[in-house]
Every structure is written in structure tokens, then in C-alpha cells.
Design brief:
The chain has 21 helices and 14 strands. Bound molecules: adenosine-5'-triphosphate (ATP) and magnesium ion.
Length: 455
């Protein structure tokens, strides 16, 4: 039986008792309640595998309770119990997400049959979730593609680093696979059975990031209305990925330094010292030594992070990997769409000549678009041209693949990037977010590059 605990709600003592006895005999730990409010309190205290509730109760009735329970514990099945007179509301409750209903008076066999059915269903659901996760992770790890010497070096470092607990700092342009490195490290390490926890350091304000990382005690700042366990605690015995590490404030840099040195910290507003056993992986698409030189990033923290540096090369420097990754994702999205798309030679040549400023992420998006828009038709130069971002169709790839723009002077990568950014900005009428979307990078990346070109 996958159901080990249940809450039973009924205002009538006899019904509660009867149900408690039936469930207890099946080795289910039972808590009882007289109305909806009591149920919610009990569940807040400790969640349950099952809720069985009467529909008519004083105070908060069964339907209202069903709503609240589905909102807070969406995975917990709810079974309604009802007398003949309210069968309509029982049916209504199933429409609103109840698993099933029992008509009073019911016999022991009826309840047992329902529980058996429910138990089997829960077991299947659990297996599906587990298989899905396992599959996804294996899939990802298996499909970290690359055969060029630069990538082989990266894989070799990952393999060695995975055996240690050393902190790893991954740098590289956006979309080069930094997160994939962190996952591969985790999966190949003895910590693979533990949690993999990711925090985006650029996405939150300083206060929120502090409590995200370290947790907080109730009332430690406005809005902290209950205790919160931070990501470092959640990552115990596993790996934590600190994404975009360059973005954290000086105060948090100091706190982080201590965690890296001692594996200890306190929750925000707390006094109790917490120790954790985590492997730290940090990523950045900024040049951290430059940030250190400019006084924006602590030098001591940089050295603590940079124990094992891994530099992800931009896709345009990976030569033969490009056609291989293109073919891989072509087959992947083809399978998803139920077709078998292929590239013609000139279609593939055009894609290989494209400089991929958004790296592998951009490539994945372009291939998906190609497959969705063109389906089974062989993907030739025309199809590819139609699917590359508008700016590319006319400029970069045109130059590179030698189309009508053959006679145009060949730009340097830098010049081309600047022109490319300008076109995207013109196109979006100066709207950074829209331009970033077009270029398939984050606004932050766009702004960094604009700064680089003095725009
Ligand atoms: N070598 C690779 N082989 C196959 N897929 C890859 C490879 N590198 C990256 N990808 C895919 O490209 C996408 C982007 O990768 P990832 O999120 O790891 O990049 P990132 O460097 O963390 O990007 P950002 O800096 O924008 O966060 C993902 O879908 C990932 O699976
Ligand atoms: Mg990332």
C-alpha cells in the first residue's frame, strides 16, 4: 500500500470512528478532524497521502476544503464521503478535482477496493515521475556532445573534477553549455544520488538572494512570515550551482566566502550555525579577473571559486562539432514531431557558416524552428534562410555562405557583432528586451556586449 497516512474529516463521531478503524486495519496512520479548518491545520502540521472528507460539515464544508487542499497539496488525492441526498455535490466535487466519492452508508469492502485502486494509481504516478527524471538526466548527460579537442579537454577535466569535492568555476559566453557542465559534474560524481540545486544569482534582489541561499528565520525581514530553508541546506550531500556568480553583492560575497571556507553559515536573522556538505559549482559569463581588477568582485572569493576553472569555448570555435550537434537536434526534434527531417548540403553549409552568437542554445532554437516550420521537406538553403533570425538572413550568413552578398567586404567578428546588435536594436526600436529576444540572449548579455562596443 503506497498510502501510509490519511486525514479523515466528518462532523459525525460514528462515521469518523468507522473509517478510522477500516483504514487502521490497512496499516494507514489516521488523523481525524471535525471540519475543514481542523483538516487544514492538521495538514499544515504534516502532509498526508490521502484526505477523506464528508461534504456537509459545519464551518468549512467539504467542497471548500477540496479547493483549498487542491491548491496547497495538488498531488494529494481527496475522496468525498456523502449521503444519498447530496450525490449531486459529490459528482460536482469530482469535476473539481476529487479522486472519487463514497456513498454512505458504505461497507468495508467498498472502502478497501477504493484504496487498492488508489494505491495502484499512486504507485504508477510515482514511477512515472521517477522514470521521467532519470530519463531526462541520463538523456542530458548522454547528449553533452563534442568531439573537437577543446571539448575533449573539457570532458577530461569534468571527469577528474567529478571525483573530488573541489569547487569548479565555469566561464563562457551565454548558451555554451555551462549549466550542462555543472549537471555532468554532479551526475558523474559520488554525489549523483544527492540533490542538484540551482540558484540564479542575477535574478533576485540582495535580500531575497540572501534568504534564497541561506534561508531565514520567521520575521527576519518584511515579508518573512515563516521560516525558510535555504538552497545551501537543500543541497546538503549534493551539488549547488551558483549561476551568474559575478552578480552578487559585496555583502553576500563575504558570506559566501565563509561558506566556501568552512561550509558553515547562519540563516538570515538566525543565530544557530548550520553545517552543510555540498560541492559548489559557479558559472559566469563575465570575465571575473576583470571584475576583480575593477573592484567589483572580491579577490579572495575569486580564488576560492577558481579552484578548478573550466572555460567553455564559443560554438564558433568548435568546428566539426557544429554539424554533429545540428544533426543530433534535427533527429531529436524530428522524433518529437514524428518526422525524419534531413539537411541538404547547401542547407547544412549555410548553418555551419553562421557564427552562432547565441551558441548552442541558439542552435537548438533554430533547429527546432526549422523542424516545426518545414517538417519532412529536406532542409535546403532556402528553408534555412527562412528560419534564421531575420538579421542573419540578410547579413551574416549571407556573407559567410557566399550568396548574393559575395562581393561585400568581409567584416571582422567584432564588426559583425556590432552591426548585428545595431540591426537588432533598430528592429526593436531600441527596446532592449525585444532586441535580446530577437538575438536569443538575456538583456544582461546584450547590454554587456553593447558596452563592449561602446554603444
Ligand atoms: N555540447 C552540447 N551538446 C548538446 N547540447 C548542448 C551542448 N551545450 C549546450 N547544449 C544545450 O544548449 C542549451 C544551453 O545550454 P546551457 O543552459 O548549459 O548554457 P549556459 O552556458 O548555461 O547558458 P547561459 O549563460 O545563457 O545560462 C541547453 O538546452 C543545452 O542542453
Ligand atoms: Mg546557464
Amino acid at each position: 500500500m503506497t498510502i501510509r497516512s490519511a486525514v479523515i474529516a466528518d462532523d459525525e463521531f460514528l462515521n469518523r470512528d468507522l473509517m478510522e478503524e477500516i483504514l487502521s486495519r490497512l496499516d494507514i496512520r489516521v488523523r481525524t478532524a471535525k471540519d475543514g479548518v481542523q483538516v487544514l491545520r492538521a495538514l499544515e502540521d504534516e502532509p498526508a497521502d490521502l484526505l477523506m472528507t464528508d461534504i456537509r460539515m459545519p464551518g468549512m464544508g467539504g467542497l471548500k476544503l477540496l479547493h483549498k487542499a487542491k491548491e496547497k497539496w495538488p498531488a494529494m488525492p481527496v475522496v468525498m464521503m456523502t449521503a444519498y441526498a447530496s450525490v449531486e455535490s459529490a459528482v460536482e466535487s469530482m469535476r473539481q478535482g476529487a479522486y472519487d466519492y463514497l456513498m454512505k452508508p458504505f461497507g468495508v469492502e467498498q472502502v478497501e477496493a477504493l484504496l487498492l485502486r488508489l494505491s495502484e494509481r499512486q504507485q504508477l504516478l510515482r514511477e512515472v515521475v521517477m522514470l521521467r527524471e532519470e530519463n531526462r538526466d541520463r538523456h542530458r548527460a548522454r547528449n553533452f556532445l563534442g568531439q573537437t579537442p577543446v571539448m575533449n579537454d573539457v570532458f577530461a577535466v569534468i571527469e577528474r573534477a567529478a571525483r573530488s569535492n573541489a569547487t569548479v568555476l565555469v566561464n563562457g559566453e551565454s548558451g555554451t553549455g555551462k549549466e550542462l557542465v555543472a549537471r555532468a559534474l554532479h551526475e558523474q560524481s559520488p554525489r549523483a544520488g544527492g540533490p542538484f540545486v540551482k540558484v540564479n544569482c542575477a535574478a533576485l534582489t540582495e535580500t531575497l538572494l540572501a534568504s534564497e541561499l541561506f534561508g531565514h528565520e520567521k520575521g527576519s525581514f518584511t515579508g518573512a512570515d515563516s521560516q525558510r530553508i535555504g538552497r545551501f541546506e537543500l543541497a546538503d550531500k549534493g551539488t549547488i550551482l551558483l549561476d551568474e556568480i559575478s552578480e552578487i553583492s559585496p555583502e553576500l560575497q563575504a558570506k559566501l566566502l565563509r561558506v566556501l571556507e568552512e561550509r558553515q553559515f547562519e540563516r538570515v536573522g538566525g543565530e544557530h550555525t548550520i553545517s552543510v556538505d555540498v560541492r559548489v559549482v559557479a558559472t559566469t559569463n563575465r570575465d571575473l579577473p576583470e571584475e576583480v581588477a575593477a573592484g567589483r568582485f572580491r579577490e579572495d572569493l575569486y580564488y576560492r571559486l577558481n579552484v578548478i576553472p573550466i572555460s567553455m569555448p564559443p560554438l564558433r570555435e568548435r568546428g566539426d562539432d557544429v554539424p554533429n550537434i545540428l544533426r543530433h537536434y534535427l533527429a531529436h526534434f524530428g522524433a518529437e514531431m514524428g518526422c525524419e527531417p534531413s539537411f541538404t548540403d547547401d542547407g547544412l553549409a549555410l548553418l555551419c557558416a553562421y557564427p552562432w552568437p547565441g551558441n548552442v542554445r541558439e542552435l537548438v532554437n533554430v533547429v527546432e524552428r526549422l523542424v516545426v516550420l518545414s517538417g519532412d521537406v529536406p532542409l535546403d538553403e532556402r528553408a534555412v534562410r527562412r528560419c534564421l533570425p531575420e538579421l542573419v538572413r540578410n547579413s551574416a550568413a549571407g556573407n559567410a555562405a557566399g550568396s548574393s552578398a559575395d562581393s561585400a567586404p568581409l567584416l571582422s567578428l567584432d564588426e559583425m557583432e556590432k552591426a548585428h546588435l545595431q540591426r537588432a536594436l533598430d528592429h526593436s526600436q531600441g527596446d532592449i528586451q525585444a532586441a535580446a529576444d530577437l538575438l536569443q540572449v538575456s538583456p544582461r548579455v546584450l547590454q554587456t556586449r553593447m558596452k563592449k562596443h561602446g554603444m
